[in-house]
Amino acid sequence: MSVQLPLTISIRRSEVENLFLPNDYSDNDILLPLNISNIDWYLISSSDSQMSLLSPPTFNYFTSINSTTIISSSSSLARPMPLVKALPVAFVLSSIVVLCICGNILVILSVFTFRPLRTVQNFFIVSLAFSDMFVAIIVMPFHIVTHILKRWIFGKIFCQIFVTSDVLLCTSSILNLCAIALDRYWAISDPIQYARQRTMRRVLLMIMLVWILSGTISIPPIIATMLGSSELQNFNELQCELSNNKAYVIYSACGSFYIPAFIMTIVYAHVFIATRKRFQERAKAAAKLAKATRTNNNQASPTDMTIVIFIVDIQV
């Protein structure tokens, strides 16, 4: 059956609670009037005593329960932020975005224009600055708009690009921090040997590996979309979020957060231990040197006096 004309349906809780609503659904969450048009899969048959719904639809404005969906007036239909509140929020968040962009641009320019900073290890900082700068340019503005309007307004195609860019750039930022931690650890644990091994080629290979790993974590949803699979897609008219597919969530969370966090924790613990050990060795060496200096001074004083007396005797 096809309904081509706009149709307004008011549904009372008592008529559908056994079909759609969970047992703990409150009376305040009442099904609202629906404005429906061009529906080929919604069949309504009613009588004086009851209304039955066949082949229930899946609206993107609803909270999904299996293949059936319902409206919650308190949560699902989030209203845009009031203008009085939206203006200061937009100003503050936009200021943060501008500061983030300008700050990272200054970091990049400092490394490339100030010769003392143009060292091999600082290219890790440049890669990190690029990641954070593009997060501020590509990701943060759309998050601000979505936060204020309480819905995604940029379409499905850009949703995929947005989510992929978000995961790619945030993951690369974290992995760049991981690469910096490893670089510091190698420089402290074996400074002489690593100083010879830390070449521009090696640093660029590490940076390239960081971005490749970030890509392998962020690209699967786009590949799934191109192949027509819906398992890694999580888009509707209200939200644009990362897929809630369990396998992909575990894969992306481990690759972009848990494993790098574990590596950085272990590496910085070793850096702390190595640095503390080096300071202790330097303190012991300084104490030995001071003790040896005092001993030499004490032994040298009588000799100097004897020489002076001997010279005086000769002159007399």
TrEMBL record:
Tell me the keywords, alphabetical order: Cell membrane, G-protein coupled receptor, Glycoprotein, Membrane, Receptor, Transducer, Transmembrane, Transmembrane helix
The source organism is Rotaria sordida
Membrane topology category: Multi-pass membrane protein
Using the UniProt record, give the first listed, main subcellular location: membrane
Gene Ontology molecular function: any one: octopamine receptor activity
Coiled coil feature spans: none
Q: Which residues cross the membrane?
A: 89-112, 124-149, 161-182, 203-228, 248-274
Tagged with keyword Cell membrane: yes
Q: What is this protein called?
A: G-protein coupled receptors family 1 profile domain-containing protein
Report the InterPro entries cross-referenced here.
GPCR_Rhodpsn, GPCR_Rhodpsn_7TM, Octopmn_rcpt
**One GO CC annotation:** plasma membrane
Family, per entry: Belongs to the G-protein coupled receptor 1 family.
Tree of life domain: Eukaryota
Q: Where in the cell is it found?
A: Cell membrane
Q: Where is the G-protein coupled receptors family 1 profile domain?
A: 103-316
